[in-house]
Amino acid sequence: MSFLPDEIWSKILEMGAAANRLSYRDLCSLAITCCRHNRLSSDPSIWSILLALDFPQPISSSSSSLPVPSKSLYRTRFERDKARRIAASRRAMLIAESQVSVCKGRLKELEFQLRKEGERMKGALEELSNLERIRRASVALNVWQPELVRGSQRQMVEQCTVPIESRLSNLKMEVNLCKHQISIYKNAYNEQKQRLQESKEALSSQKYNPLEAYHSNVSRTDSGTKRKKLT
């Protein structure tokens, strides 16, 4: 690079910026290598090209009496855009956290409904079983049986104060309804679990920081190496 004059290198850098082969990161990396590179990378014409490409602005009829250097203007718009992206990321994270919370609340509600319907169906099935036994006892009274058995069956039938057939029909309908409701709640529960998983993945993606992950991996590697050396 030292064999070419600054004018040629400035032109090369301009061409690289115009062709999207040279970014602001490249210029910043170049600037810290030496004084000459710092001077070349600060060329206003290069930053004007990057400014027009990265932060295009509508042409304004009003002109400022004190024009702002291209590099300073690029820095200002970059910081503004960075703040906007950070705010958007925070909003997305809050939305993802809210979705996770809503999904967890909905899952608890569905779990409660499933338990409630399960208990309701269990009670209906128990009553249905008892009524079936009473109906069989009622039928058995019409045939001869030992008096001890007959007395027990008669007592069972007399203790029943509801119309057996009508109540049996109602209980069967209630059991079928419970099964239907449980099926609906289970489907909703599975869908909600899927949504929760997706919301957790979205939240994890929003919280992911490549630098933190890298430093964490490096730290674990270093601690593992130290333990091996100690052993």
From TrEMBL:
Q: Which residues form the F-box domain?
A: 2-48
SUPFAM superfamilies tied to this protein? F-box domain (SSF81383)
- Annotated region described as Disordered, given as residue ranges: 196-231
Q: Which UniProt keywords apply?
A: Coiled coil
As recorded in UniProt, coiled-coil segments are: 107-134
Entry superkingdom? Eukaryota
Q: Has keyword Transmembrane helix?
A: no
Cross-referenced InterPro entries: F-box-like_dom_sf, F-box_dom
What is the name of this protein?
Answer: F-box domain-containing protein
